Amino acid sequence: MTDTIDLEIRELLQNARSIVIVSHIRPDADAVGSLLGLGLPLLAAGKQVQLVLQDGLPEKYAFLTGADRVERSIQSGFDTLITVDCSDLKRTGSVLAGLPAPDLNIDHHQTNVNFGRINLVEAEASATALVLAEHLPMWGLMTDAGAAQCLLAGILGDTIGFRTSGTDSKTLRVAADLMDKGANLPLVYRQTLLSRSIPELRYWGQGLTKIQHEGPLLWSVLTLDDRIKAVYPENDDADLINLLSSVSGLLVVVLFIQQAPDRVKVSWRSAEGIDVSTIAFEFGGGGHSAAAGADVEGSLDEVVGQVLKRTKQLLADF
Ligand code: 5GP
Ligand code: MN
């Protein structure tokens, strides 16, 4: 059944001639996969499409069809603006500064603040790419093998290879459909989840030497200096948080990634039943119950102090 919102979106896309699609800073597989997985079908439908990531496309996703089209800023005029996998406008960075609210906000975060004119937000979906895979046909858009592979990358990224608690049978059915359309699961799995560079491992090494824990809470820190020493080219955590989360017996893991002398990216991961998205939201960020993040102003020491204090309060209430 096609809902009213799908009819509204179909009309928006049919009337659009020149579309800008934007996703979030420090892009992950779901950001990139959703950006391309929507952009490629729109291009195939004859639309002009600009794909924008403020931090550019991380090298590990260069194998995806359309990767070479990603720009760091809007290059020319457009009539329709869409964001994917962003729970608030701050997540897009500053590329949309001074522009009216997006026409369409497609996302799966429970903390989404519905900043678009049309908001397609499915908080129970395991990835934004999954939302797209399900809705594209209702908008009259075709998913070819290239687009299917991008969408599968998004789903694999956010479910960490079908193993997060949000991975339901629908996720597997949609992934199977994407494989039938031509997506190569082993290739996408290898590229998005297994393949590592030497700088990434060096960067992990820096973080691993600084692990601290107090009971069921574990945390570590990655400084700007660690990034320079490791010659790591991105500004994320290189997925170190997933490695830290593999330690058994933990309830919460927090990773602090220094972005500037006065700004720190914080990542939380939690065991079932502990909602870290509420704390992330308090610190100006957002996310899901078991995985959340925030960009926090302050020196590394200040942010570590404030965030650990608040996280320990949450654990004390548990
Ligand atoms: P990560 O810790 O891997 O960066 O992100 C975990 C989850 O929290 C993801 O769903 C991500 O989109 C969300 N998230 C991470 N950082 C931020 C942030 O600064 N703001 C918001 N709104 N969400 C974030
Ligand atoms: Mn996502």
Largest sheet: 6 strands, parallel
The outline comes out as globular
The radius of gyration computed from the alpha-carbon positions, rounded to a whole number of angstroms, is 19 Å
How big a fraction of the residues is strand?
15-25%
Description of the molecule:
- The protein is 38% helix and 19% strand.
- It contains eleven helices and twelve strands.
- It has helices at residues 4-15, 29-44, 128-135, 145-158, 169-180, 185-194, 198-208, 224-230, 240-245, 277-282, 300-317, and strands at 18-22, 48-52, 70-71, 80-84, 104-107, 118-121, 212-214, 217-222, 252-260, 263-270, 286-287, 291-297.
- It has a six-stranded parallel sheet, with helices on one face.
- Strand 11 (286-287) and strand 12 (291-297) form a beta hairpin.
- The chain binds guanosine-5'-monophosphate and manganese (II) ion.
- Guanosine-5'-monophosphate (5GP) is lined by residues 87-88, 91, 109, 111, 241, 267, 285-288, 291-295.
Provide a concise account of the structure shown:
By secondary structure, the protein is of the alpha/beta class.
Task: Please tag this protein with its features.
318 residues, alpha/beta, six-stranded parallel sheet, 12 strands, globular, binds guanosine-5'-monophosphate, binds manganese (II) ion
How are the secondary structure elements laid out?
Blueprint: H1 4-15, E1 18-22, H2 29-44, E2 48-52, E3 70-71, E4 80-84, E5 104-107, E6 118-121, H3 128-135, H4 145-158, H5 169-180, H6 185-194, H7 198-208, E7 212-214, E8 217-222, H8 224-230, H9 240-245, E9 252-260, E10 263-270, H10 277-282, E11 286-287, E12 291-297, H11 300-317
Helix pairs in contact: 2-3, 2-4, 3-4, 4-5, 4-6, 7-8
This protein binds guanosine-5'-monophosphate (5GP) and manganese (II) ion (MN).
